[in-house]
Amino acid sequence: MLATAGNMKMSIYLETSIPSYLTARPTRDIRAAAWQQITGQWWDEARAGYDLFTSELVIVEASGGNPEAAARRLDALRGIAELPIDEETQVLAAQLIANGGIPASAEADALHIAVAAVHRIDYLLTWNCRHIDNATKKPIIRAICSRLGYSCPEICTPMELLTEGDDDVPR
Fold first, then answer.
1. Bridge-partner residues for 154, per DSSP?
2. Coil, helix or strand for 123?
3. How do the pLDDT tens digits run along the chain, 171 residues long?
4. 31, exposed or middle or buried, with CB in 10 Å at 0-12, 13-18, 19+?
5. Residues 15/124, Cβ–Cβ less than 8 Å
6. What is the DSSP letter of 165?
7. Is 49 within 8 Å of 9 (Cβ atoms)?
8. DSSP state of 112
9. How confident is the model at residue 8, as a pLDDT?
10. For 168, which DSSP code?
């Protein structure tokens, strides 16, 4: 899926936190409110510039919880291509756990990374900074992927993929 010179768009795997923050009801929690606003801004301004992908795991996770909230999440994901979770993906996820990239208690997080790596996705977009977009874990995750012959996607938040405007630059 890696984009090359030409008119191919870069690819993004949307982890479950993206549709969750995109469709969540407004909150008074300042961090969650900021993430909601940034996710909505990225969705409105930048998503069209990428080929979006998700997986059956995202669909399952997005389907859980409050039925109305689940319906909003699933509606946001409608039309986005689903990548399969096959044996190769499961093997890589197991290696991410066995080699200290992801804790055993976060198997789903290892699967998200593995799906994106196996399918050669350019970016994994997430707000999960505990296990996925964690500065101390990303070098380990990259090393495990590389050692096993995979290119690790760039793991980032929507904020990192927003285009800077002239008014974003400090003077």
1. 123
2. strand
3. 554 455 689 999 999 999 999 999 999 999 999 999 999 999 999 999 999 999 999 999 999 999 999 999 999 999 999 999 999 999 999 999 999 999 999 999 999 999 999 999 999 999 999 999 999 999 999 999 999 999 999 999 999 999 776 555 444
4. exposed
5. yes
6. P
7. yes
8. H
9. 84
10. G
39: β partners: none
Note the helical H segments in the chain: 17-23, 30-45, 56-63, 67-77, 87-98, 107-118, 138-147
Task: Return d(Cα 86, Cα 52) in angstroms, integer.
Answer: 19
Q: Write down the residue that tokens 């940034």 correspond to.
A: 38
- Reading the block at residue 73, the tokens are 């999440």
Q: Considering only the C-alpha atoms of the chain, give the largest distance between any 2 of them, rounded to a whole number of Å.
A: 52
Residues 14 and 135: their CA atoms lie apart, in Å, by 19
Take residue 61 and report the two structure tokens written for it.
């996770």
Angstrom CA distances, 50 to 126, 145, 155, stand at 15, 23, 15
